[in-house]
Amino acid sequence: MSKPTPQRIRLLVVDDSAVARRAICKAVAADPRIEVVGTAADAYQARDLIIELNPDVLTLDVHMPRMDGLSFLKILQQHHSVPVVILSSMTPAGSELALLALQAGAVEVVGKPGNDEAIAELSERLIECVWAAATTRRRTALRIPGPTPAAVPEYSGTDAATRLIVIGASTGGVEALRTVLPRLPANMPAILIAQHIPATFSAIMAQHLSALCRFPVREAVAGEMLHPGLALVAPGNRHLSVERTAKGYRVQVSDSPPVRHCRPSVDVLFRSAAESAGRNAIAALLTGMGNDGARGMQLLHAAGARTIAESEESSAIFGMPQAAIQLGVVERVVSLEEMPRTFIELLREHTSR
């Protein structure tokens, strides 16, 4: 079962900037259910306050003196179960560290603007991440499986160009993708991914995934044509959709308004897949807070697509998969370990029809 949410979330803020600490405290103060029980300027102060205050959640900067946030996180994961939300600068170096922090066990990452005072503008996002961290099950550093051909049957279908796989995820989704995608064969139908992630972080995430997979993974570019053996990720803070043309599937990227506070929106991707691919699509909804993707999966299900949701047992947060399951539009509920094989089974079933 998912970890119960405390009635009042006790938060410890760790950042070497006094301005940033004040801004974070101000940002989360908008939610009376979150109580900042302490602040720390470095990892050593944080260590002492964790022992003294026993917080429910920690926000942690990655660039700090004496000990950087990533090193502290790795130590913390070995000795204390407090969930961690990372604040990382939206630079290539900051994005790289943020992805490494997620791999090391952080629950979520928030893009930190160049001006510390501007953190207060991220109030809604920070509050959402603190709540997600408070409800997530214990996360530890992930051991990433390599591409193991024996683990999943090869896909030998001849209809890969007409098939489409769409995946949606939020909190915990980066690590879920790192578990599923590397185990898929190289000749899979095109894969489109909507992962809730800050702008600038998605390109680094795609690079990390591509290094692990048997097929290229990269950020989607508007107007790009799809083909088997390619996975595209929605650019951070932009919607990703797909359309059917005379030459095949083509992706579009949009700056249109967020849908239910989400951009990229899983619903936007899933809705477009229902319209363009219909019964030729397979949709998977992975871990995440909220209900993004549930309505889109309902449309896919009605169009004859095959639908999968991650099980509660493997989800960091069961919110998004559960919302789709409750609508009665999920055909199979499987763990992350079972998902690669499930993709192949569904592809084979479609080919044999």
* Superfamily (CATH H level) name of the largest domain: Methylesterase CheB, C-terminal domain
> Which series of helices and strands comes N to C?
EHEHEHEHEHEHEHEEEEHEHEHEH
Sheet-strand content, in percent, reads 15-25%
Number of structural domains: 2
Question: Structural class, from helix and strand content?
Answer: alpha/beta
- CATH class annotation of the largest domain: Alpha Beta
> What is the count of β-strands?
14
Biggest sheet character: 7 strands, parallel
As for the CATH topology of the largest domain, it is Rossmann fold
Summed up, the helix count is 11
> What kind of assembly state do the chains in view correspond to?
single chain
- How many angstroms separate the termini? 38 Å
**Approximately how much helix is present in the residues?**
25-40%
Mean pLDDT: 90
Our Rg estimate from Cα atoms comes to 20 Å
- Globally, the shape reads elongated
Detail the poorly predicted runs.
139-150
Strand order in space, largest sheet: 8-9-7-6-12-13-14
